[in-house]
Design goal:
Distance between the termini: 25 Å
CATH superfamily of the largest domain: Acetylglutamate kinase-like
Number of strands: 13
Oligomer: single chain
Strand order of the largest sheet: 3-4-2-1-5-7-8-6
Number of domains: 2
Order of helices and strands: EHHEHHEHHEHEEHHEHEHEHEEEHHE
CATH architecture of the largest domain: 3-Layer(aba) Sandwich
Largest sheet: 8 strands, mixed
Number of helices: 14
Structural class: alpha/beta
Helix content: 25-40%
Bound molecules: adenosine-5'-diphosphate, the ligand N[C@@H](CCC(=O)OP(=O)(O)O)C(=O)O
Radius of gyration: 21 Å
CATH class of the largest domain: Alpha Beta
CATH topology of the largest domain: Carbamate kinase
Shape: globular
Strand content: 15-25%
Length: 363
């Protein structure tokens, strides 16, 4: 099986303020054992900011992005060194891969990253991925490693995404705040009711809490990859989940396995939203057609030509994702207009479709 394992800061610290070496040894032993059983593994790890803070002796923090970037720059090398040293004990070679949102947006960079990861997997090397925090300013950041792990799962067409964290799974409410909360063992589909279960920002060290984990589950399951959220302190969690043992919360794949291009289209958060009229929604949903400007009622967000947009039906539900052939400002001018009018309105045309059917994934 090909699996992506995501380790949150909460798991790497095991409830302390530092990278917890014994916990890391357990995790790496599990990775080495899974690889020895023939599984292909990719690791997405957090912990660079924490490792940097630890290295500098826990100075007071102001919480700014610049400070996080500096701490990540200090910590990433140390984090990687720790992984490499411990993985050596088990004869497991590791490779560092640092990614940002642009690496998923730009088709060439996306394909390059995929080639590198495939090369690692062929040679039995464990890719250890983190966001390239030191350069990732707001506009080019994925922003949290749960979402990053879902993008990576799409990139390598994983059979499973396992997110280990400090909660035992998805609960009916944040278990830190509500002692009555109970575990939800299986989520068939990420519905608004599931979204409503996510509490706030999570543990004091983590980014995003359950919210970003549900987002990750939605991204990966749509492309056909099931997702498990399980406790990082469960012994042998990786091996047990790979064996199919129920542990934590399993999100079932909602879509059939998408081919590679469809996965790329889903491998980015939508930069804008297009509200369609009835006819256009039907054409996209039922007939698999392209979206013409005539069927667009409203354009939301700022996006460039070629970026991913969400297509919403008249009742506001998302029916598809696709690559826009026009920038948001252009689309706003040609929305509701016949395709023949595009050139007259803009002075140029990129073709009659706002989103071509080849660039669409129905959800
Ligand atoms: N419905 C829920 N079920 C489980 N955990 C939840 C829920 N809502 C919020 N949480 C919080 O999310 C936290 C995990 O997220 P986070 O701290 O960001 O961890 P990580 O570092 O692993 O990404 C849990 O400790 C828990 O307090
Ligand atoms: N890239 C950051 C981690 C960001 C993040 O999502 O953290 P977490 O919620 O602990 O998975 C780091 O290495 O510190």
């Amino acid at each position: 099986m090909r699996a992506v394992l995501k380790l949150g800061t909460s798991v790497l610290t095991a409830g302390t303020d530092r990278l917890h070496r014994p916990r890391l040894v357990d995790l790496i032993r599990g990775l080495a054992a899974a690889r020895a059983s023939g599984h292909e593994l990719v690791l997405v790890t957090s912990g660079a900011v924490l490792a940097g803070w630890e290295a500098l002796g826990f100075p007071p923090r102001d919480g700014t992005l610049a400070e996080k970037q500096m701490l990540a720059a200090v910590g990433q090398g140390r984090l990687m060194h720790t992984y490499a040293t411990l993985a050596d004990l088990y004869g497991l070679p590791v490779a560092q891969v640092l990614l940002t949102a642009d690496d998923f947006r730009d088709r060439t960079r996306y394909l390059n990253a995929r080639t590198t990861l495939e090369g690692c997997l062929r040679r039995g090397v464990l890719p250890v991925i983190n966001e390239n925090d030191a350069v990732a300013v707001e506009q080019i950041k994925v922003g949290d490693n749960d979402t990053l792990s879902a993008f990576v799962a799409n990139l390598v067409e994983a059979d499973l995404l396992l997110i280990l964290t400090d909660a035992p799974g998805l609960y009916t409410a944040d278990p830190r705040l509500d002692p009555q909360a109970t575990l939800i063992p299986v989520v068939e589909r990420v519905t608004p009711e599931v979204w409503a279960l996510a509490g706030g920002a999570g543990s004091h060290r983590g980014t995003g809490g359950m919210h970003t984990k549900i987002q990750a589950a939605e991204i990966a399951t749509r492309a056909g990859t099931p997702v498990v959220i399980a406790p990082g302190d469960a012994p042998e969690a990786l091996g047990r989940v790979l064996e199919g043992e129920p542990l934590g919360t399993r999100f079932l794949a909602s879509g059939s396995r998408l081919e590679a291009r469809g996965r790329w289209i889903l491998a980015e958060l939508a930069a804008g939203r297009l509200h369609l009229d009835d006819g256009a929604a039907q054409a996209v949903r039922e007939r698999g057609g392209s979206l013409l400007p005539a069927g667009i009622r409203e354009v939301e967000g700022r996006f460039r030509r070629g970026q991913t947009v969400s297509l919403l039906g008249p009742d506001g539900t998302e029916i598809a994702r696709g690559l826009s052939r026009y920038a948001a400002t252009d689309l706003a001018r040609i929305a509701g207009q016949h395709s023949r009018a595009i050139e007259g309105l803009l002075g140029y045309t990129y073709g009659p479709e706002a989103v071509h059917r080849d660039d669409l994934v129905r959800l």
